[in-house]
Automatic annotation (TrEMBL):
GO MF entries: FAD binding; monooxygenase activity
Alphabetized UniProt keyword annotations: FAD, Flavoprotein, Monooxygenase, Oxidoreductase
Annotated transmembrane regions: none
Pfam families attached to this UniProt entry: FAD_binding_3
Organism whose genome encodes this protein: Nonomuraea phyllanthi
Signal peptide extent: none
Name listed for the protein in its UniProt record: FAD-dependent monooxygenase
InterPro entries, per the entry: FAD-bd (IPR002938), FAD/NAD-bd_sf (IPR036188)
Domain (FAD-binding) ranges: 2-310
């Protein structure tokens, strides 16, 4: 099996396939597993926790879970004066984990299957297999090609050229603050929502808390990616003028900040099953407002492992996986978009 992308979903799939005795090779475009900033803390729900139990070796999973933080299972919305506007009890088990720690845990048992510096340029599918072509001139041939290569998926671009990923109209600045500044905000997520769809988000994990600021793209100055950390803090400080002093304490101690343009896929109808398939953000990228993206990628990996490990004919197994993946992924995209519109001011999804 050929997996394109060594993010969380691709590595989870590699773990599951190896445990099932299925040969797998993972090809990642980045030159190393630590080259790209994608974020710091992740929220794992019971969906993601359960998926890890299906794909990871028990000892490795237990060691990883020992690094997790358990927040109160609720989502809280505050006004700029830190008065409570809304409390949504989440129910079930929720963990706050470090993204790199999870990626390292998923990589540990499959490191020898991953080749870095392999950027996919295209593929050819035939009745008996699939051949992937890479920018360095190399090729790989297997029974199945899985696009686990994220929101900018090269696999999806060739396989489903009509599938769209669009902007939400929002930019998010994402970074870390000391855990002590969020000690009494120990929820799955706390959103401090101000006028003009300006939102400060806080989420503690072990050793630090993430702090984000989102706003409509047109309200933020150009060139955020070239600004110094001091300048980014100044921009957000000005845009939150008059908010509670504790918010400004967070901004003053905000570190490792980088900008992200928030995007979402647009759900499409099921497609004919073939020897090429997708998982995670390659199939259903979504707004972070639902906290579901990583959980769905892990769930996809576990579900695809189970379908392939069954031992039956390939195409019917993939069709079963895709039906469930498309249905769950599309529902999560729509739910995240609706929540993003309500809390963050995200532009609504187009009808098609």
């Amino acid at each position: 099996m050929i997996v394109v992308g060594a993010g969380l979903g691709g590595l989870a799939l590699a773990n599951g396939l190896r445990r099932a005795g299925i040969d797998v090779a993972v090809h990642e475009s980045d030159p190393s597993p630590r080259i790209r900033r994608q974020g710091y803390r992740l929220h794992l729900s019971e969906t993601g926790i359960g998926a890890l139990a299906e794909v990871m070796a028990a000892g490795r999973r237990a060691a990883f879970l020992a690094t997790a933080h358990t927040p109160r299972a609720r989502f809280v919305r505050l006004d700029p004066g830190l008065q409570v506007l809304e409390v949504l009890e989440a129910g079930g088990r929720h963990l706050s984990v470090d993204r790199q720690t999870l990626r390292d845990a998923l990589l540990a048992d499959v490191a020898e299957t991953v080749t870095y510096g392999r950027r996919l340029t295209g593929y050819e599918a035939a009745a008996g297999g699939v051949t992937a072509r890479f920018a360095d001139g190399s090729t790989a041939t297997g029974d199945l090609l899985v696009g686990a290569d994220g929101v900018n998926s090269a696999v999806r671009r060739q396989y489903l050229p009509h599938a769209r990923v669009i902007g939400t109209g929002l930019i998010q600045l994402y970074g870390k603050i000391p855990a002590a500044l969020a000690a009494d905000l120990d929820n799955v997520f706390t959103a401090i929502t101000g006028p003009a769809h300006r939102v400060v988000g806080v989420a503690p994990t072990r050793g630090y808390a993430t702090c984000s600021f989102s706003a409509p793209a047109g309200d933020l100055p150009p060139g955020l990616g070239e600004m110094t950390q001091e300048r980014l803090r100044a921009v957000v400080g000005k845009m939150t003028y008059g908010w509670h002093p504790r918010v400004h304490d967070m901004i003053d101690d905000w570190r490792e900040i980088f900008p992200l343009a928030l995007r979402t896929s647009v759900p499409i109808p099921p497609w004919p099953t073939s020897r090429v398939t997708l998982l995670g953000d390659a199939a259903h990228a979504m707004s972070p407002a639902g906290g579901a993206g990583a959980n769905l990628a892990l769930r996809d990996a576990a579900a695809l492992t189970a379908a392939l490990a069954h031992g039956g004919p390939l195409i019917p197994a993939l069709r079963s996986y895709e039906q469930e993946m498309i249905e769950a992924g599309s529902a999560a995209v729509r739910a995240s978009a609706a929540n993003g519109a309500r809390v963050l001011g995200q532009a609504p999804l187009p009808a098609r």
